[in-house]
Prior knowledge:
CATH topology of the largest domain: Glutaredoxin
Protein name: GST N-terminal domain-containing protein
Pfam family, one: GST_N
GO biological process, one term: translational elongation
GO cellular component, one term: cytoplasm
Largest sheet: 4 strands, mixed
InterPro entries: EF-GSTs (IPR050802), Glutathione-S-Trfase_C_sf (IPR036282), Glutathione_S-Trfase_N (IPR004045), Thioredoxin-like_sf (IPR036249)
Number of strands: 4
Amino acid sequence: MSVGKLYTTATQNQGLRIRAVAAFGGVQLETVEGFESNVTNKSAEYLAKFPLGKYPALETPSGLHLTETIAIARYVAGLAKNSLLLGSTPEEEAQVDQWVSFGDTELFAPGRIVAGLLSGNVPYNKVVNRYLLPRAHRSCDQFPRVPPRYPHIPRL
C-alpha cells in the first residue's frame, strides 16, 4: 500500500532523492502522473493543499501535507521497516542529518549553479564558476571517507 502521493516532475532532483529513499527503504510511494511545474502547482486544487505552491510535496492517506525535500524524505525513511536510514542512536541520527545537510549545502546547491552555468541555462560567470567548482570538488572528496567513520550510513 502506498504511503502517499508525491507531487514532483519526473526529473526534479529533489523528487528523485525522495523516491530513492523510498526505494532503498522498501516503502511504496505513488508519484502523481502528469505533474507540470508552474501549472499543477499553481492550480487552486494544489494551492488548497500546499498554499505556497512548492514541490516536491507529499499528501498522505491520513491527510498530512508536507513540502520540503528533507522533511518528506525523513518521513518516508521513518516508515521503512528495519531500516537504519535515520540512524538508531541520537549520535547516528545527528550524523545522518549532518550528511543530508552537507549534501544540500555543499553539493546540490553549488552543483546546480555550476551545471546551470555550464549548460547555458544561467548566464556564464567565470568568477562564480571558479568559486563553486573547486568547492564542489572539495566536497566530493569527502565521500570516500564516509564508510569507515560512519558505518551505519548506507552506500548507494
